[in-house]
Design brief:
Blueprint lengths: L12 H4 L10 H9 L7 E3 L5 H9 L36 E2 H8 L5 E3 L5 E2 L1 E3 L9 E5 L4 H13 L4 E5 L12 E5 L2 H12 L8 E6 L4 H14 L4 E4 L4 E4 L2 E2 L11 H13 L4 E5 L2 H5 L10 E4 L7 H4 L2 H13 L8 E5 L5 H6 L7 E5 L7 E9 L2 E8 L2 E7 L4 H16 L4 H10 L8 E2 L7 E5 L4 H13 L5 E5 L9 H12 L2 E4 L9 H9 L6 H6 L14 E4 L3 H11 L5 E5 L6 E4 L2 E4 L2 H10 L1 H9 L1
Parallel strand pairs: 5-6, 6-7, 7-8, 9-13, 9-14, 10-13, 14-15, 15-16, 16-17, 21-25, 22-23, 22-25, 23-24
Antiparallel strand pairs: 1-19, 2-4, 3-8, 10-11, 11-12, 17-18, 18-19, 20-21, 26-27
Bound molecules: adenosine-5'-triphosphate and magnesium ion.
Adenosine-5'-triphosphate (ATP) binds next to helix 7, helix 13 and helix 15.
InterPro entries: Mur-like_cat_sf, Mur_ligase_C, Mur_ligase_C_dom_sf, Mur_ligase_cen, Mur_ligase_N, MurE/MurF_N, UDP-N-AcMur-Glu-dNH2Pim_ligase
Family: Belongs to the MurCDEF family. MurE subfamily.
Length: about 625
């Protein structure tokens, strides 16, 4: 591979940790001369047959039309559509009778009760969110629970109800409009799409599937469209944006919201002038049909590795769930596939849907990719990439860190190529994204060692993260890592093994224990290093623990705060401390309760008192 890494000396903190501004390291200058690249980002257009692109633009994608997008003002309340200012978001109003909705959505009832002419003003599948005037669609697995949810929705003011056959219904609902269908879960997407006016048909919808990198890539694609002057909404793990900076204040949104929320949010985006939406199509979301009525245009595949086997059972089922997105790519004029062909599963995804649908592939290793990075440099202060594309060569300097983020950047370039965006806009849009919360976030309080907080919570993500950190040539890597409760148990020992193989010191700790005992989760992780909790406890929590056969050390601290403090207290000049697993999250989930907890704040706090912590450690 033709990459050159800027290897950081143990005293790199002086240059890189004091400032997050991206400094182009010296080797860039040489590379620049060799490639005759000027001081600013340059691109070299070549001849690329863009007939297909023109057609795609004409048929669907307003986001890619030539010239600056002329935005329609909404009562003069628009802001800067490059996403830099807040504007007042206008709440759209919807109204339809239940009879009209059944007709429009083509839902066939098994039986109906009450007045179908009742007017509904919203659709909800979550009984706790029901407002007066809503239609409540009772989508529970267990029929008896349905009864409870229906009563709650009724109390909150629902005016009409849809439930599956066999659901227990309270007598008090008797006078209301009630529709019984074969399976309420399966009709919800059609009802919601019809009620909110099929918003996705009037926007370009870019959906990203894959085990890792979805959230990061959505942020980059948002940057790309905004650089084209296009309003774009975003639905993903960290937040939902109507467009620009207009984020909905939600504590922990679902990566892919439920079908009613997906349609409602898209309708809101459209009403507020968005012309595109980028979303994470999670395997849960795809399996549960949350986006089954979303009119996707571009499907992006990032990678496929182990995760979520608690939900899908086998890797094969997990892959099939992800494939559902690509199966929807059937129209060569309206659809595009964007695929990482370094991933061994690429061909499986490419083969889904219609083979005639244009594909834009991307890769670092596979030189045959349409979008390929022959050269790149990684450092703790940023990433430089040279990208070959069918439209020419593009040079990108991004403040996102790590080799894995090169893939996310290439995926974004490939989307830009798929929609015919000029290289200059693609580069500008990507460079504009300075950080994605909790993704390789550098915590800098002026300490002489590096601290990174990252959301890596799959074996592959932990492995790529630690490989990147190793490339920075730290003196030691000290990793704090845990695994979530009520989720895939088999990944626990694998993650512990990866961490102890790739870090000089590992501190195993709790993530979100949910309804499991944190010690049981740690026991599962310990199996990865052929220990048990009993073996471990024999040595006492703060005693010397014999190193692993590879000479690496590990400790166990179920309390995440203690684990983070211990790691920070160990930090010495030239070390890199990695806090993995929770990234942007601002809470720990114990049982059904959320307690405030933010790895980034914990690190900052610990760094303020690092001397005291060290002193305490020695005592
Ligand atoms: N392209 C990639 N390849 C491998 N690992 C990645 C990639 N992008 C990000 N990661 C790692 O995965 C973690 C999660 O990244 P991100 O949130 O973008 O992924 P995601 O697919 O949205 O995850 P989730 O399914 O949990 O929402 C990052 O913190 C990083 O460690
Ligand atoms: Mg995500």
């Amino acid at each position: 591979m033709a990459s050159t890494f800027s290897l950081l000396s143990p005293s790199y903190n002086a240059i890189s940790l004091q400032s997050h501004n991206y400094h182009r390291p010296a080797p860039f200058k040489l590379l620049r001369r060799l490639l005759a690249i000027g001081p600013n980002r340059k691109y070299y257009p070549n001849t690329f047959d863009d007939n297909g692109i023109e057609k795609f633009q004409q048929i669907h994608c307003q986001a890619t039309r030539d010239g600056k997008h002329q935005h329609q003002d909404l009562k003069g309340e628009t802001g800067n559509y490059e996403g830099e200012s807040k504007v007042k978001i206008v709440e759209p109003k919807f109204k339809m009778s239940l009879a009209e909705l059944l007709h429009e959505s083509k839902v066939v009832p098994l039986s109906v009760y009450g007045d179908l002419e009742v007017e509904i003003t919203g659709i909800q599948q979550d009984s706790t969110e029901v407002k007066a005037g809503d239609l409540f669609v009772c989508c529970v697995g267990s029929r008896s629970y349905g009864r409870l949810y229906l009563s709650e929705a009724h109390r909150r003011g629902a005016v009409a109800f849809i439930a599956s056959k066999g659901t227990e219904i309270e007598d008090t609902l008797g006078s209301k409009a009630l529709v019984i269908v074969e399976d309420a879960n399966s009709v919800l997407p059609s009802l919601a799409a019809a009620f909110y006016g099929y918003p996705s048909k009037n926007m370009t919808v870019i959906a990203i599937t894959g085990t890792n990198g979805k959230t990061t890539t959505t942020y980059l694609i948002k940057g790309l469209y905004e650089a084209r002057g296009v309003r774009i909404g975003l639905l993903g793990t960290i937040a939902y944006y109507i467009h620009g900076d207009n984020k909905l204040e939600l504590e922990s949104p679902l990566t892919t919201p439920d079908a009613a929320a997906v349609q409602n949010l898209m309708a809101k985006m459209l009403h507020n002038g968005a012309e595109a939406v980028v979303m994470e199509a999670s395997s849960h979301g795809l399996t549960l049909g949350r986006c089954s009525q979303v009119d996707f245009n571009i499907a992006v595949f990032t990678n496929f590795t182990r995760d979520h086997l608690d939900f899908h059972g086998t890797m094969d089922e997990y892959k099939k769930a992800k494939a559902k997105l690509f199966q929807r790519m059937v129209d060569p004029e309206r659809h595009r596939k964007v695929v990482n062909i370094d991933d061994p599963n690429a061909h499986f995804f490419i083969a889904q849907g219609n083979p005639e649908v244009p594909l834009v592939s991307f890769a670092i290793d596979n030189k045959n990719a349409d979008v390929h990075a022959p050269e790149f440099e990684l450092s703790l202060s940023g990433t430089w990439i040279l990208v070959n594309t069918p439209s020419g060569v593009l040079e990108i300097s991004s403040s996102l860190l790590g080799r894995h983020n090169i893939y996310n950047i290439l995926a974004t370039v490939a989307v830009g190529i798929a929609v015919g965006a000029p290289l200059e806009d693609i580069g500008r849009g990507i460079e504009k994204v300075e950080a994605v919360p909790g993704r390789c976030e550098v915590i800098d309080e002026g300490q002489p060692f590096g601290v990174i907080v990252d959301y890596a919570h799959t074996p592959d993500a932990v492995s790529s993260l630690l490989d990147f950190v190793r490339e920075l040539a730290p003196k030691r890597i000290i990793t704090v890592i845990g695994c979530g409760g009520d989720r895939d148990q088999e990944k626990r020992p694998i993650m512990a093994k990866i961490s102890t193989d790739k870090s000089e010191v590992t501190i195993l700790t709790s993530d979100n224990p949910r309804n499991e005992d944190p010690l049981d989760i740690l026991d599962d992780m310990l199996a990865g290093v052929e220990w048990t909790m009993q073996d471990y406890l024999k040595h006492g929590e703060n005693d010397y623990h014999p190193p692993l056969p590879n000479g690496h050390q590990f400790y166990v601290h179920p309390n995440r705060r203690v684990a983070i403090r211990k790691a920070i207290a160990m930090g010495e000049e030239g070390d890199m401390i990695v806090i993995a697993g929770k990234g942007h999250e601002t809470y720990i989930i114990r049982g059904d309760e959320k307690e405030l907890f933010d790895d980034r704040e914990e690190c900052r706090d610990a760094l303020k008192y690092v001397d005291e912590l060290r002193y305490a450690k020695q005592e």
